[in-house]
Amino acid sequence: MTTVAETRSKSLLYLENVSVSFDGFKALNALSFVVEPGELRAIIGPNGAGKTTMMDIITGKTRPDTGTVLFEDAIDLTKRDEADIAQLGIGRKFQKPTVFESHTVWDNLELALNRSRGVFATLFYALTGEDRARIEEILETIRLTHRTDELAANLSHGQKQWLEIGMLLAQEPKLLLVDEPVAGMTDAETAETAILLREIAETRSVVVVEHDMGFIRELGVKVTCLAEGAVLAEGSIDFVSSDPKVIENYLGR
Amino acid sequence: MITRFVLRALEGKIVVAIGVLLAIAVLVPALNLLVPAGSAFHVPTYAVSLFGKYLCYALLALALDLVWGYCGILSLGHGAFFALGGYAMGMYLMRQIGSRGVYGDPLLPDFMVFLNWKELPWFWYGFDMFPFAMLMVLVVPGLLAFLFGWFAFRSRVNGVYLSIITQAMTYALMLAFFRNDMGFGGNNGLTDYKDILGFSVQAAGTRNVLFALSAIMLALCLLIASAIARSKFGKVLVGVRDAESRVRFLGFRVENIKLFTFVVSAMMAGIAGALFVPQVGIINPGEFAPANSIEVVVWTAVGGRGTLIGPIIGAIVVNAGKSFFTGAFPEFWLYALGGLFIAVTLFLPKGIVGTIQHGWNARKALKAAAEREKGEDTDMMPQAAE
Does residue A127 sit within a domain? Predict the structure, then answer.
């Protein structure tokens, strides 16, 4: 058995006893959750289990009432705002694909690129060869090279999801939070996305929230099941899906 | 770095617009001063000042377009920045009157003598110096925008709430400036100017110079606005407009981005006001009226927001229409303005320039699609996983 202190010091992201309530409704109830460097983790759970609230807290959109949220065992995320946390290296993909529709695919990635984000730095920014190469590399990874100059608005739903993932990659985060990446995707796109996420997880940690059990099986990673704002079960997909509490709370319904 | 920043601004349409503005700056004064009054090509002096006024309005609309069209901040208070720039210029012009006023006081403007004030209030110091007054034309609107934006953007006031408080801001300023003890001439404002830098404001020569300056400043601000819009910062601005939270989660400080744009825009509005005042000969609290700021929004919408050139065209077209209507059918102007706004909203939601641009792009896309069809039939879709 490892001690709590050891777990914490090894962790990339460490949540302990995090609670938050909105108008009396306990969205998170003493949630504890650890992500290690280089880990790919899936999160499942019924609607209202607190999956999105958890992401809001990690990315600084919501402040918890109580609890500890640490990044790399040193940085207290509850004291930082969204821009700060993004610059620390936590990227977030929203449930609904959110890309800049009136910009081209290329411009979307250029904006996301991990460069100085100050007013004057962006006013006088000029694309360097290095940046160009990085954007081309990402385009390759997200399979959008052939649509570089297309407006993001003209992409298919699945391609928008990929573009958003690409934007997160351009940010060069240490931790990627991905909310329902395959919602509304075709089967082929879903399979492709599983490959894409596994590729990404080779160099950084990824947390995926998803409802699609087939997709989670395809990912083949450790699964955490949330319900009513706390962890219900954690382990392999087979272990979690055979847990009677999980069946009752989530799968059975 | 600066050169590259400016060169990037010079896209086809912008170059043409700047060229046209610079040509007007030379041509109109020439037609006024060099062509004899009897000729069909002669431009009367009153028309020079009238066009000059339109150009000031165009600059105000351009300033609004930067915050509204690009950054998505619908300011219903831009008239306030315009009026503040105008007051700064008006204060300089008042100090130039000297002892030529009705009461002949060498230091105090007439309205202060009338109010029985004995000395010049501290905030009128320095306005006898032209460079200081011109600095204030930029600083005062910029500072107000900075303070306002600092609080509003930091507390994430957005959308319609922000629009309402900008409207409240200009309304509050109007009420304040109406009061005599504010020290800005109260209800009557500042007027009865004599000269600017030693030249009579009434003289045809001065009027032509002011006209040319209006055209040149408009061209310069268009250049700056275009350079901003075409930089990476400009792309971030559009991002803020379309998906603010995405920009935030990419690590940008949205409040700083908005603040910078708002201050630059307010300064441009201030310049417009400063050029406006000597050409119309008066500035009074009426310029702060909420309706004025709303009219600017109409001009911008009619011309096409987010196009930079559109608002310039919109401001000139609507105001020329206003001059014509209020002369020909005075009672119909408000109906015409209302009708125009409804028609634009219903039939030209992108405005004049936006619609033309859209049509142009659609044609280009059709052509490109046709080319592609001819050229290749290969499947462009990415390969699915085996």
Answer: no
Tell whether A13 is covered by a domain: yes
Q: Residue A7: give the domain boundaries.
A: 1-38+50-88+223-230
**A101, A102, A146: residue with CB nearest B380:** A146
Is A79 within a domain?
yes
**pLDDT-based confidence at A217, cuts 50/70/90?**
confident
Which one of A82, A107, A119 has the shortest CB-CB distance to B235? A107
Could you report the per-residue pLDDT of B312-367, keeping only the tens digit for each?
A: 999 999 999 999 988 888 888 888 888 888 888 888 888 989 888 888 888 888 88
Rounded distance between C-alpha atoms, residue B44 and residue B233, angstroms? 43
Joined tokens for residue B153: 């953007």
Residue B232 in contact with partner chain A when CB distance is under 8 A: yes
Q: Tell me which residue in B232, B243, B380 faces A110 most closely, judged by beta carbons.
A: B232
Nearest C-alpha neighbor of A19 from the set A5, A32, A4: A32
Task: Tell me how far apart the alpha carbons of residues B138 and B122 are, in angstroms, rounded to a whole number.
Answer: 19
A146 reaches B (C-beta below 8 A)? yes
Q: Is residue A32 part of a domain?
A: yes
Q: How far is CA A52 from CA A60, A93, A179, A230, B235, in A?
A: 12, 11, 8, 13, 29
Average pLDDT, chain A: 90
Kindly state the tokens that stand for A243: 């847990």
Per the CB < 8 Å rule, is A123 touching B5?
yes
Instruction: Strand A230-235: give its sheet, edge to edge.
Output: A90-93, A175-179, A205-209, A40-44, A222-227, A230-235
How many independent structural domains does chain A possess?
A: 1
- Whether A116 has its CB under 8 Å from any CB of chain B: the answer is no
Which neighbouring-strand residues pair with B83?
Answer: none
CB-based contacts of B184, cutoff 8 Å, min separation 6: B87, B91, B177, B190, B285
> In a mutagenesis test of the B interface, which of A125, A160, A167, A199 is the best target, namely the one with the most B β-carbons within 10 Å?
A125
Amino acid at A48: G
**B160 reaches A (C-beta below 8 A):** no
SS3 B167: helix
Q: Do A119 and B238 touch (CB under 8 A)?
A: no
- A113 → chain B, closest CA residue: B250
**pLDDT value at position B366?**
84
Instruction: Select the residue of A100, A110, A188 nearest B246 (Cβ to Cβ).
Output: A100
| pLDDT at position B55 over 90 | yes
Question: Are A100 and B5 within 8 A, CB to CB?
Answer: no
**What's the confidence (pLDDT) of residue A23?**
87
> d(Cα B29, Cα B206) in Å, to the nearest integer?
10
Question: For residue B386, is pLDDT > 80?
Answer: no
CATH number at residue A83: 3.40.50.300
Instruction: Name the residue with higher pLDDT: A75 or A4.
Output: A75
The answer to whether the beta carbons of residues B309 and B223 sit under 8 Å apart is no
Nearest residue on chain B to A120, alpha-carbon basis: B233
Q: What is the pLDDT of residues B116-127, one digit of tens each?
A: 999 999 999 999
The predicted pLDDT at position B385 comes to: 38
On chain B, the residues whose CB falls within 8 A of the CB of A82 are 245, 248-249
Looking at every residue in chain B, the average pLDDT score rounds to 92
